[in-house]
Design brief:
Elements (H helix, E strand, L loop, with lengths): L7 H5 L7 H14 L10 H18 L2 H10 L1 H7 L2 H5 L4 H5 L10 H9 L7 E2 L5 E2 L5 E7 L1 H6 L1 E12 L14 E3 L8 E5 L5 E5 L8 E3 L11 E12 L8 E4 L13 E7 L6 E3 L2 E9 H6 L1 E7 L2 E7 L8 E4 L15 E8 L6 H13 L9 H8 L2
Parallel strand pairs: 3-11, 13-17
Antiparallel strand pairs: 1-2, 4-9, 5-8, 6-7, 10-11, 12-13, 14-15, 16-17
Helix pairs in contact: 2-3, 4-5
């Protein structure tokens, strides 16, 4: 017995009067959430099924003609009019993901998933049904210091990846041998089966995986895959101003594919700093000064990302006051100026006084009209600077 298919509107979580823009927005959010490469390994199978389900719903509801049939007749109206592969024909997937190129979506990652459904969104099919795919995108994380993030740095990273087999030039067949036409699909890359309800279902050929041909004598180096796993050292220039979560896209440094190489995405992690806290383009640090310097004023040395600098402390500075050092923060990654360094001043209250020091402070208290019988003047200073 055939399983009952879920309502397409329910799958996407939208109302029946949803606009095309609303449908696109919801589909994009769901596609990113259930992309198999964005979930833990143990959830990949479930994510793939969910991804296929929401993609089928989108393919129907984003097409006005298919949507009208579905609204009138339900799944029966669609299934009787279209084969499974035809459901996706004309669906505008590219416009949904066209602004996600810099984040590793589209191309290789989506190709492989949609190819399993028997159609290609971003790629194309060869003349005899073989899929032409861009190589898979890769992602690697780099840890850098705050100083390296501030000044920019060049790093050499190690990237394991698949490359085109040099022995068979990617064909997968032993040099001197040839592929033969797949006897199951006769070179089409697809097989068609009847559902028993007067219409047919087209799907990727299980024997040749949609290539339309099979290898009789596999290459001894890659064992018929057409690619081998290697490890490459790649130099990456990290621009000044990057922050944790920044992505760098290095074109053509991903894995090999029949339609070209994928890209490499470098994710930046900036390690916590023992002295500075980063707040966007500004950095915050703290210094401690004596109570006499706070009262009388002084000049102190302050750490910055480029060494020590002198900073004036005006007389009467209160504990917790923040001073701003212009252009001593982080650069904007797009070259739009510099942030500032914020310096919080903490006033240190002495906890142990000599007899002479106490007498001098008591004398100062008398001159200031302070009552010091009930509590010590030192305690009052501590309260004042809390």
């Amino acid at each position: 017995m055939m399983a009952t298919k879920r309502d397409y509107y329910e799958i996407l979580g939208i109302k029946k009067n949803a606009t095309l823009d609303e449908i696109k927005k919801v589909y994009r959010e769901l596609a990113l959430r259930y992309h198999p490469d964005r979930v833990p390994h143990e959830q990949k199978k479930e994510a793939e099924e969910k991804f296929k389900e929401i993609s089928e719903a989108y393919a129907v509801l984003s097409d006005s003609q298919k949507r009208a049939l579905y609204d009138q007749y339900g799944h029966a109206g669609i299934d009787q009019r279209y084969a499974y592969e035809d459901i996706f024909r004309g669906a505008d997937f590219s416009s949904v993901f066209q602004d996600l190129g810099d984040f590793g979506f589209g191309g290789g990652l989506f190709d492989e998933i949609f190819s399993d459904l028997g159609f290609d969104i971003f790629g194309a099919r060869g003349r005899r049904g073989g899929r032409v795919r861009r190589g898979r995108d890769l992602e690697i994380t780099i840890d850098i210091t705050l100083e390296e993030a501030a000044g920019g740095v060049e790093k050499t990273i190690t990237v394991p990846r698949y490359e085109t087999c040099s022995t068979c030039s990617g064909s997968g067949a032993k040099p001197g041998s040839k592929k033969i036409t797949c006897p199951q699909c006769r070179g089409s890359g697809r097989t068609v089966m009847s559902t028993g309800f007067g219409f047919q279902l087209a799907q990727t050929c299980s024997r040749c995986s949609g290539e339309g041909s099979i290898i009789q004598t596999p290459c001894s180096e890659c064992r018929g895959e057409g690619r081998t796993r290697v490890t490459r050292k790649i130099k990456v220039k990290i621009p000044a101003g990057v922050d944790t979560g920044s992505h760098l896209r290095i074109r053509g440094e991903g894995e090999a594919g029949t339609a070209g190489r994928g890209d490499l995405y470098v994710v930046i992690e900036v390690r916590p700093h023992p002295v500075f806290q980063r707040h966007n383009h500004d950095i915050l640090t703290e210094i401690t000064i004596s109570v006499t310097k706070a009262i009388m004023g002084s000049e102190v040395e302050v750490p910055t990302l480029n060494g020590q600098v002198k900073m004036k402390i005006p007389p009467g500075t209160q504990s917790g006051r923040i001073f701003r050092l212009k252009d001593k923060g982080m650069p904007d990654v797009h070259g739009k100026g510099m942030g500032d360094e914020l310096v919080r001043v903490n006033v240190e209250i002495p906890t142990h006084l000599t007899l002479e020091q106490r007498k001098l402070i008591e004398e100062f208290a008398k001159l200031s009209g302070e009552e010091i019988n009930k509590e010590s003047f030192t305690d009052k200073i501590k309260k004042a600077f809390k």
